[in-house]
Amino acid sequence: ALGGAKNRARMLEVFSRGGNQYPRYRFFDIKRGSILDLLEIQSSDILITANGYVVPDQESFWKYLNVMHLQEDAFIEISREGAQLLLDYKFKK
Known about the structure:
Distance between the termini: 18 Å
Helix content: 10-25%
């Protein structure tokens, strides 16, 4: 589980100028050594999708992080300084 203050980060809903109807969230206050830091997500990154799915709310993203290690392969799509990146993770079984 991802309990504890170290694994907490702020997520703020952002809206695109292009009128994207799906929510996106900007990360803030990512702490060194947290799950987000280990996944190479940085403060000011914007979450686009998790495993190809639009994340409807912050609670869904935290639930996803709690179970992603059960998968063989997981990926998170983000926007960093205007560039879209796909962070891909392989888990050993």
